Amino acid sequence: MPIQVKVFAEYRERFGFDQREVGHSEGIDPQTVWRLMGGGALPQNLLCSINWDYVSLDTVLNEGDELAFFPPVSGG
């Protein structure tokens, strides 16, 4: 069951890609995907969205979902 994973800003450099299809098992959540992709420890300020909606890191993913990881944005 594939999901699309997108990473932005500094996370793109960390992983070496900006988008990738990832297979997953039932009941997987964003924090598990992060670790399976080799992201290491979860950054304290890690933000994620599923299908363009902000979600918590323990939200369960479904087949076909688009998961995005990005750092918080600041500025004016």
Can you put this structure into words, describing what you see?
With 76 residues, the chain is an alpha+beta fold. The protein has one domain (2-70): Beta-grasp domain (Ubiquitin-like (UB roll), Roll), CATH 3.10.20.30. The chain is 17% helix and 29% strand. It is built from two helices and five strands, in the order βαβαβββ. A five-stranded mixed β-sheet has the order 2-1-5-3-4.
- CATH secondary-structure class: Alpha Beta
For CATH, the homologous superfamily is named as: Beta-grasp domain
Q: Give me the secondary-structure category.
A: alpha+beta
- Treating each run of at least 4 consecutive H or I residues as one helix, how many helices? 2
What is the percentage of strand-forming residues? Answer: 25-35%
Q: Roughly how many Å is the radius of gyration?
A: 12 Å
- What order do the helices and strands follow? EHEHEEE
SSE topology:
Blueprint: E1 2-7, H1 10-15, E2 19-23, H2 30-36, E3 47-50, E4 53-54, E5 66-70
Parallel strand pairs: 1-5
Antiparallel strand pairs: 1-2, 3-4, 3-5
Salient structural properties:
about 80 residues; alpha+beta; Ubiquitin-like (UB roll); five-stranded mixed beta sheet; 2 helices; globular
Question: TL;DR?
Answer:
The chain has 76 residues and is α+β, with helices and mostly antiparallel strands. It has helices at 10-15, 30-36, and strands at 2-7, 19-23, 47-50, 53-54, 66-70. The protein has one domain (2-70): Beta-grasp domain (Ubiquitin-like (UB roll), Roll), CATH 3.10.20.30.
